[in-house]
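Dear Dr. V.,

Thank you for agreeing to look over these. As mentioned in my earlier message, I'm a first-year student in the group and I'm still getting used to reading structure tokens, so any feedback on how I've presented them would be very welcome. I ran two proteins. I've put each sequence directly above its structure. The first is here:
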Amino acid sequence: MAQATLIQAYNEKHDPKIETIEEITVENSSMSGTQMMTLVKGYASGGISSYETYYSDYLESGYSLTESNLLAMNKGSQGVMAQLPTSVDESLKEMGQMNTYGIIVGVVAFGIAALLIPMVYTILLAKGLVSEKVETGSLAFTLSTPTTRASFVFTQACYLIFSEVVMALSLLAASLLTREIGILAGSADLSTSLPIKDLCLYALGNFMVAFAVSGINFLASCHFNKTAEAIGTGGGLTIFFFICSILGLFATKAIPGTIRITMMSIFNYMTIDSLFDPLAVMSQDYATFFFKLMFLLLIAIFTYVLGGLRFRKKDLPL
């Protein structure tokens, strides 16, 4: 059984394929097939020996057959775990201590999945607020009235921000409702593993990313007179940030150490999405969480102000 598993695992990653365990050598693997089997036999014999010893001891102590079997299996497994390499042991302990609800909801849902729809909506809305009106010429009718450039661009910015706030509040309300339904359905551990405070902070972080992204797209819409250019720049940056956040996820502590790819952390430095740190919420490091959000706020303010100034001063093809 062990030999077949090792051969199958080797063949999935290497060519040419092998048929016997002896064909695995130190030249094409971290250890030879013989060494692997020796290690497996050592773990197996150690676990069996520990189990038999504990089983006899518990029977002599007056435990029933079932109780002795369960207790001996537990102790024997602990003995095997103790023989594992330190890195493997630490990784397994890390997986056991992970906040599964926090990772699924905070990192995956709010940090990635729930960002996609607001991003797409923001890209399409932002281009329609300014650049599309300039390109189609409809802005000429607006500015021919007593409406000034400043009041027009301010109104458009407020509308975009208001839309982001409505989406964020809707997401938070849906999340809170889903949490309560889960608790009523029998998942009582949601009340401790996913407290309302954490859920609100996840929603805040999600909104701040969307807010910063909306500022970038608003700036692009104010700068360019062509819709395609506005979407290509603002939307291109937005999608680039999103892809980098997905790739960078594999280097974070949300991924178990056994499959974590540390070198991919470079992508977290190439996206503003990483400034939303759900792991800081899970570890109750609120200072770090709000410190990073401050940069998202600064990005949003800077891009909105710069977009407004650019629109007021640029030449319009009216």
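The second protein is here, in the same arrangement:
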Amino acid sequence: MGEKLTPKQRIAIDTLVLSGDKSQAATAAGVTRTTIYKWYELQHFRDALNQAVGAMLAEL
């Protein structure tokens, strides 16, 4: 994984894992919903999100 997440992307991922709500994730990260959708187009963002969801599910 060559790309690193920004602090705002990490906040968005944490919020998405907990709520699944893109609007909440955007607000928490201090970005627009459009930015969240653009981040979804980035492979490293999707990989990190999937990994975070997997880690949460493993704890259940």
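From my reading of the second output: The mean pLDDT is 95. The helical segments are 7-19, 22-29, 33-40, 43-58. Does that match how you would interpret it?

Kind regards,
E.
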